[in-house]
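User: quick one, fold this
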Amino acid sequence: MSIEKLLTEKVIEAVKQCYGADIAEQDIQLQPTRKEFSGDLTVVVFPFTRYSRKSPEETGKELGEYLKRNIPEISDYNVIKGFLNIVVSSAYWLGELNRVAETPRYGYAAEKSGRKYMIEYSSPNTNKPLHLGHIRNNLLGWSVSEIQKANGHEVKMVNLVNDRGIHICKSMLAWQKFAGGATPESTGTKGDHFVGEYYVRFDRAYKEEIRQLMAGGMDEEEAKKQAPILQEAQEMLRKWEAGDEETVSLWRTMNDWVLAGFDETYRLMGVGFDKIYFESETYKQGRDLVLQGLEKGVLYRKDTGSIWADLTGDGLDHKLLLRDDGTSVYMTQDIGTAYQRFREFDMDEMVYVVGNEQNYHFQVLSLICGKLGFGWSDKIRHLSYGMVELPEGKMKSREGTVVDADDLMQEMIRTAKEMSEEAGKLGGYSEEEAQEVHRKVALGALKYFILKVDPKKTMMFNPKESIDFNGNTGPFIQYTYARIRSILRKAAEAGIDLKPGDTSLAISVKEQELIKLIVKLPAVVKEAGETYSPALLANYAYELAKEFNQFYHDFSVLKEENEALRNFRLLLAGQCAEALKNSLGMLGIEMPERM
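Assistant:
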């Protein structure tokens, strides 16, 4: 039983014994003791004065005496106004360290929860490569999935590839017009980059046509609609939806180029999926469901032929579901995909990891699915995250001003190599071994920098700052881990075993604080799962690494002459390393054994 649980039970017992009052668990306010006071846990006494009819200080002292007498793990207490600060014995914390050392994969739930999650992330368009915004999406989705698994939940990690629609046709049309038969193979270009170039080419040609139409006297809005290249793209979309053989063949070829490129990016990024859905395969299901909703009178058709949902009764507006020409919109395919997924996998939550510009979309998706009579509509959850910005501003895909994901990761690997060579840390490593360390450090820096920020917040990404070996960065934590592993290797060479030790040992407050942080990991994992926030684990790992480095600065480990104390400190260091590895492992960050 945890000390928090034990203390809660005994406070209930103490109030009953001392004052004859029955209180419930929710009546007890228990919190970590503030650093400026002596203690480990603090009980808020004010609610109990109504039963004691005494001052908060007197009530605190009476409860403190009772708890000290009845809980062997409590060594002392003090009362500051209405706050009872409980001091937990060193023996308890040493026992906790031993327990942690004997627990396989500490921080991971030992039993299955029975809950099922499906988590969708990435959701790229097959008209351009992945960029920095996609990196945040993928890293969040992958990490949140791993955290839910660590909490004992069953998780299906899925991707929905947006492989149809006008934006895809824009790349296809531009390739027809401007490529001259070129392919990724003939140009030596990665497939997603190759197709992305034609998306940018389309936008340039489109803007030039608008300019020419406006020069001829047409107003801007009309010019945007009448531009011939846009009308050609719209006609291509109609042909695709009608199953035109030539259009569909080109679409398959270009999608295959892009998907092969995506696979390379995902491998380097270290993310994957249990299943990949394609919008081209789900939008028809959505269209059928919309037509069924029309028949039931849940939806309505305008004179022009388009189909809409009236959400004014829910405080929203009218939402288009099928266009005048019968073609689908994003909402249509999302309805179809959700329907298919809940039939395949009866989950407790369907989590969409999508940027906060789509908040309205997912609010509407849940409402419409409810109106269509689907009982799972309230299981839809939108993990809304903030955008990633650069020091020079926002990114724009159409204008080709994005930070490409592949380029960014390769640049960070080069930077990690330069910094490592300057520090001279990898002497004796083969070229292949050194490259592997550079990769781990670079991607660790990228992942940590992005995931340490609360998902809800817009973030500024600075590559140079992310790869610093000092401060709140991935490389700092990786270096701390590598330092501990070096200590443990030396201990092993000296024939010292890491095993549970004597709980009667006298240890310092700093050592106790380090144990408390290690013990805290499962609670952090639980909270990170409940709040869908990998940032909690990232910042926990930083706090632990920082505390270890202070401890290592102040205390001898291998050179400690007292054998029992030396062995305890080695065990403590080993469990710090394990907690760092497990917490950052849930973020997808690998830990080098040497740096």
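User: anything notable?
Assistant: Residues 427 and 513 are 35 Å apart (CA to CA).
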